[in-house]
């Protein structure tokens, strides 16, 4: 097992959407950031493929490319099907958020955010388990 000996202003454990976004913002603010991920990319997760307009707004603020050719799929709302019923809910029209949500497989979404954090200056270490503070 490899034991990193790096020093950093901020150590972020987990390079999922929350961790990678945190690492990005800290690195963009000029902090020395170490982003640790126990898996290696690409890796799959069974949830979280859909993003609301509020989440899309954050990606835009972060400068994450959200082009269709990068695998992003735009949607106009939510569709729920179950128990013999079908319900379609459009996203609300709010001036502070885009009028669409996005979907993308977690295998590439998480890696995209982690690489975006790295491009901002964070050091990404994959296959790294954290066992104590």
UniProtKB/TrEMBL annotation:
It holds the Pfam family FAD_binding_3. It comes from the Bacteria. InterPro entries: FAD-bd, FAD/NAD-bd_sf, Geranylgeranyl_reductase. Residues 7-132 form the FAD-binding domain. GO terms for molecular function: FAD binding. This is FAD-dependent oxidoreductase. The lineage of its organism: Bacteria, Bacillati, Actinomycetota, Actinomycetes, Kitasatosporales.
